[in-house]
Amino acid sequence: MCHNCLLSARDLILKGSIWPIGNRQSIKISNNRWLPCSPIFKLGVDTTMKVGNLIDHQTKQWNRSLIQATFTQSTQDDILSIKLTNLACRRVPIDRLYANCGQMKGKLTGNEMEIWVIVAWSIWNTRNQFCFEAKQSQPSDILRGATTLLQDYQRLNQHLVRP
To answer: Which of 8, 67, 71, 162 is found 20 to 30 A from 81 (Cα to Cα)?
Structure first.
């Protein structure tokens, strides 16, 4: 049952999660995973630029001429498909998330809900580590980490009275 809840929430999490890149000056174009595919540079261009270099800060839009001069067409398309308003935020639409959790709360016991939350968070955290730090984890390691986290949580909260 818990497995089905995770699968039902997966699409919601993927659709609503956006990587925060702050002022865009810390994100290296070639070393950080901010695009769906690794960027392909044209020959002879500066490959050490940061995402912030690709933005016209007067208009707050992509610097299309720089992007066209720097990248192949497929990378240009990847970059220009990103709305700049989405770059600075990371959000999960709260109303839908709460609605989904509310539906699960009626179907899961308190212990099952704790498991669901810890496993969902562990998957989300591991996905971010893979996308943004190029760190890959094995499913068994994710589960082991989630189990340890849940045991620590339960041990530290055992003295609390549950409603």
So the answer is: 8
